[in-house]
Design a protein that fits this description.
Elements lengths: L6 H6 L2 E5 L3 E8 L6 E5 L3 E7 L4 H10 L1 H16 L16 E7 L5 E5 L2 E7 L7 H34 L6 E4 L6 E3 L5 E4 L7 H13 L8 H11 L2 H8 L8
Parallel strand pairs: 2-4, 5-7, 8-10
Antiparallel strand pairs: 1-2, 3-4, 6-7, 9-10
Helix pairs in contact: 4-5, 5-6
Length: 250
């Protein structure tokens, strides 16, 4: 009887190929997938899931068939990446409660500290702060700061609006979700994204009100929008403003 391949064995069979007009594509075997599937994620490029019954040639043909769609999404992601802040000592960047300050130092590694409303980040003076590793460290420091701020600020803001408009909920959880500013479970647990701390206050409040409205109306039907409009003042207008911001682009 043939045994199933382990995850490590499947991992070894991952193949990367250069496809004309697309770039490097990763073909990843899957023991459970039923169809060839293409996914494109920021920073990870093009990934093709390969079912057991599909050949590499079939997968490549599928990629060529979807080449126009793939290029469109790669271009879109590239444009989004270009919107990211390139942090330097001259960069003006702040979260809700902290100002970022970049400083060179003689040590060979980065370090950071929060004090008196300032996020200090020190980087090795012999390395250009635009180096990818330095930029990555700064972003992680900013996200750490956002998480601390969010845990302190967002739950009390939810409580304030719940009291004001008569909503009830179970608990508030802070997450670093990739696709949602917030969500509300069927048991009225509210999840809020730490990146809300980057939004203007009125849009942060709008997301909170959006999720509180879901404690009453679980879908996005007319009654939901009527309720949200009543408590926010301009639900559709605020929702349109929110679309100008990206969760992972800052």
């Amino acid at each position: 009887m043939e045994s199933k391949k382990s995850a490590s064995a499947l991992k070894k069979e991952v193949l990367e190929k250069e496809i004309d007009n697309i770039g490097v594509v990763r073909f990843v075997p899957s023991a459970t997938a039923k169809y060839v599937r293409i996914s494109i994620r920021p920073g990870q490029g093009v990934r093709v899931t390969l079912p057991k019954r599909a050949s590499l040639a079939q997968a490549e043909a599928f990629v060529q068939e979807k080449a126009s769609w793939i290029r469109k999404h790669l271009d879109s992601q590239h444009q989004e990446q270009q919107k990211k802040t390139l942090f330097s000592p001259d960069t003006e960047f702040r979260t809700r409660f902290h100002q970022l300050l970049l400083l060179p130092h003689p040590l060979p590694h980065c370090k950071s500290r929060l004090k008196d409303g300032v996020l200090y980040v020190w980087y090795p003076e012999q390395i250009n702060p635009e180096h990818a590793d330095i930029q990555d460290y700064i972003r992680k420091s900013v996200e750490y700061t956002l998480r601390l701020e969010a845990k302190q600020y967002l739950p009390q803001r939810v409580a304030y609006f719940a009291r004001k408009f008569g909503f009830s909920y179970e608990q508030v959880t802070i997450k670093n979700a990739k696709t949602r500013w917030g969500s509300c479970s069927h048991t009225n647990n509210i999840n809020l994204n730490l990146h809300l701390m980057r939004l203007p206050e009125h849009l942060c409040d709008y997301v909170i009100l959006h999720e509180l409205a879901h404690t009453v109306e679980k879908n996005h039907g007319p009654r939901f929008w009527a309720l949200l409009d009543q408590i926010s003042g301009d639900a559709k207008g605020l929702d349109k403003q929110l679309k100008a911001y990206r969760l992972q682009v800052f």
